[in-house]
Amino acid sequence: MVRTQLQRARNGDVTDAMERVAERENRDPEFVREQVADGQAVIPNNTAHDALDPMVIGREFATKVNANIGNSEETSDRDGELEKLHAAVHYGADTVMDLSTGPNLDAIREANVAHSPVPVGTVPLYEAVARVDDPADITHELLLDVIEKQARQGVDYMTIHAGVLMEHLPLTDDRKTGIVSRGGSILAQWMEENAMQNPLYATFEDICEIFAKHDVTFSLGDGLRPGCLADASDDAQFAELDTLGELTRTARDHGVQVMVEGPGHVPMNEIADNVERQQDVCDGAPFYVLGPLVTDIAPGYDHITSAIGAAEAGRAGAAMLCYVTPKEHLGLPEREDVRDGLAAYRIAAHAADVANDRPGARDWDDALSEARYEFDWRRQFSLALDPDRAREYHDQTLPGDNYKDARFCSMCGVDFCSMRIDQDARDADGDMTRLDDDTDLDASAAADVNRPPVGSHDAAGVPDEVEIGGVTFTPAESSTDESAD
Ligand code: SF4
């Protein structure tokens, strides 16, 4: 019988996954075990996901970032999805969620799991919807069938919107934007048409048994999350959160790992209270937040509006940040949107880790600042979060090799370069200190995700090619080391 990471942690076992996580985070394996045993951290790790390099999600560890990928009825095919997976891992996603709702769901999911060194999450309700003519026709049996199949396919965590109850729905009547979660809106419609309780709530203990069998982690969905600032922190959101607290305890009783999803759209001054309330209601279960967006006025720039909220949520204790791309509210993200969204969120996660004084987190900043002051342009590029972008912008105006050790760039120009002027003045005073005690990132206590290059997962378990349904999938090149200069 499979025993979950939670069950084994409670039993006092330090598993291989816990050892690996401890290595990546520079922490004591026993500390990792304690955090998992107490439900304060999760290691999404389906026993059928062979390519996985285990990672941990919890407020005591480096803040993680999730990237959503997936197709829709309108756009993207299987190869396009694998390309997005590769881009997500390359640009530093710690987990990916396959939110496909279009054709070839099984093949895309199996290819993603086979090729992903990071945990893969899904929302099984989407497949259930795809298998019926009318969402109201979804049955308990169909939901459990889909969930069991996806668990067998190796999905590491699933969003289960079990906290949206019939009695919560009237609380959304006065909202400006109603129910904006896809899962939440589908379930609300189902409950109204069938006059029955949420089927995911009704079958929750059956789902727990499936999850325990395959060690799938719950990501308890927030189907009533606010979709605009005006709806943030309202009665509907907090009524659902109370139910999520109850479900957290039920899942743990079954030995299943749990994290809890959070809003959405929240004014900056309410974010810390939201995080603290979730931690209290859900007994410290890792909080996995979408953004939140701190203003509603900037479609086209919502990777920025939400990364501001994500940084504040991370500082306040959120464990994982679900990225938002510039296409949010506007269209399905493509590869370049994935890159921009991940850059924004890696910045937010790292800023939170620096603010929370995570071990070694600031070392990366210090190393880059030293390279900057020394006019070591090549090192500055290689340490940059997105080395290609940094080099590209620099070289747009000063492309020649001779400018790679120039004591200025085109921003201020040679005469007004303040760092050169400052260095010259200190040289003249005789008190110029050359930075010969450079920060040694190799010796840093920082977690892997807090050191360059981002996207440095161990891809050793990713197979060269996989045949699924008669189609051979060949992964794009390895995700490791490409962002290093
Ligand atoms: S020119 Fe300005 S931006 Fe460029 S290195 Fe000097 S101080 Fe920095």
List keywords for this structure.
about 475 residues, alpha/beta, eight-stranded parallel beta barrel, two-stranded antiparallel ribbon, 12 strands, about 10% strand, binds iron/sulfur cluster
Measured distance between first and last alpha carbons: 46 Å
Strand order of the largest sheet: 3-4-5-6-7-8-9-10
- Category by helix and strand content: alpha/beta
Annotation, overall tally of beta strands: 12
Radius of gyration: 23 Å
Largest sheet: 8 strands, parallel, barrel
Q: What count of helical segments does DSSP give?
A: 18
Provide mean pLDDT, rounded.
Answer: 93
Q: Cofactors and ligands present?
A: iron/sulfur cluster
Pfam family, one: ThiC_Rad_SAM
Family: Belongs to the ThiC family.
GO molecular function: 4 iron, 4 sulfur cluster binding; phosphomethylpyrimidine synthase activity; zinc ion binding
InterPro entries: ThiC (IPR037509), ThiC/Bza_core_dom (IPR038521), ThiC/BzaA/B (IPR002817)
Question: How is this structure best summarized?
Answer:
With 485 residues, the chain is an alpha/beta fold. The chain has helices spanning 5-10, 16-25, 29-37, 78-90, 105-115, 124-130, 140-153, 182-194, 199-202, 204-214, 235-253, 268-281, 302-316, 335-355, 361-373, 377-383, 387-397, 418-429; strands at residues 41-42, 57-58, 64-69, 95-98, 120-122, 157-160, 217-220, 258-262, 287-290, 320-322, 466-468, 471-473.
